Amino acid sequence: MKRNVISIVLGGGRGTRLFPLTYSRSKPAVPIAGKYRLVDIPISNCLNSGLNKILVLTQFNSASLNSHIKNSYHFDIFSKGFVDILAAEQNVENESWYQGTADAVRQSMKHLEKYDYDYILILSGDQLYQMDFREMLDFHIENGGDVTIATIPVVAKDATGFGILKSDDDGNITSFYEKPEYDILDGLKSEVSEENKHKGKEYLASMGIYIFTRTILKKMFEDGAGDDFGKDIIPNSIGKYKTLSYQYEGYWTDIGTIESFYEANLDLCQDLPQFNLFSSSPIYTRARMLPPSKINGSYVSKAVFGDGCIIMADKIENSVIGNRTRIDKGSTIVNSYVMGADFYQNTTEIVINDRSGRPNMGIGKYCYIEKAILDKNCYIGDNVKIIGGKHLPDGDYGTHSVQDGIVVVKKGAVLPSGTHIG
């Protein structure tokens, strides 16, 4: 089946709900699972689906994202594949920046004219899932779709937080409700599998993954269909174009908040995590050529380690430990995500810091860290205690912030020896 497809990954806006992780980077550039970035997920799904013409649209805090993509994705000279950046730009025709997800694609359409494609796959850069897009494309083509939206069945409790689509028995979307009120949900049930029906998952939530037939999307833009896919384009396409629901049955989560980010990472530590890092479909990322991690005298249970770590902790449990993390003796890490470091300190600097009492990069001696996220390049002294929980009020506290009881230590923060949080 002919699949001339170009994939577009949306680079995200300000990402305020993921602050402070998005203080100096865009959402797709946030580190996940100890060694990846969020943008690696949609790009890897494309590559594993045989789709190798990929554009990433960027605008806000894009420097680290641009650098990661430039250093990660290279194709040989005989390949027609690419992963390229399309940065927001002002020009003589349009002096404004992107006004929404659809406007980002609209402003980029002129750059797509040099490519041969019949379908456009639109993806978010801040979701965790594994999907073979070829199956969705086949569904779109076989059913003569103009627009196909990937949907996932959810329970009533979750439905109020999503855009909910109602479809008929043939998969045609008949109505759309953005974050509907709980009392109108009964009329929004769609046909789902018996297994999902038994679980109460009878509401189809939009996953923010779209396939458009090229000519249809161009017509929508020419007709001024709106600036946002979820708020404008999709609702306006129902009844006017053949708009289909492609039901996805696997694991999918939107990394939109600190809590969802924290839970998604810690789930990777379970015996059978919902997101399988060990499948035959690899997650691609930058090859850093780091040494293997070294662990000495530590009790470790349900932990995920990146590369190049030096671990002398007493205990690490239910935690993700990122690349180049250093944890000194006597320390305990529980239910936390330590992102690691971008570089190693040299031995001279470490000796000088030890003599002067300044913390080294990493986690010092006899620390206790629980329910926390430590961003990259943190300097944590000795005898530091960080204990997250609902007893902590949300807010920003300079070196760290608290959201939903989760302590987030900011990138490059210095916590002197003896610091107590929580």
TrEMBL record:
Keyword Transferase annotated: yes
GO biological process, one term: glycogen biosynthetic process
Lyase listed as a keyword: no
Residue ranges of domain Nucleotidyl transferase in the record: 7-270
Gene Ontology molecular function: any one: glucose-1-phosphate adenylyltransferase activity
EC number: 2.7.7.27
SUPFAM superfamilies in UniProt: Nucleotide-diphospho-sugar transferases (SSF53448), Trimeric LpxA-like enzymes (SSF51161)
Keywords noted in UniProt: ATP-binding, Carbohydrate metabolism, Glycogen metabolism, Nucleotide-binding, Nucleotidyltransferase, Transferase
InterPro entries named in the record: ADP-Glc_PPase (IPR011831), ADP_Glu_pyroP_CS (IPR005836), NTP_transferase_dom (IPR005835), Nucleotide-diphossugar_trans (IPR029044), Trimer_LpxA-like_sf (IPR011004)
NCBIfam families reported for this sequence: glgC (TIGR02091), PRK02862.1 (NF002772)
Protein family membership: Belongs to the bacterial/plant glucose-1-phosphate adenylyltransferase family.
Identification of the protein by name: Glucose-1-phosphate adenylyltransferase
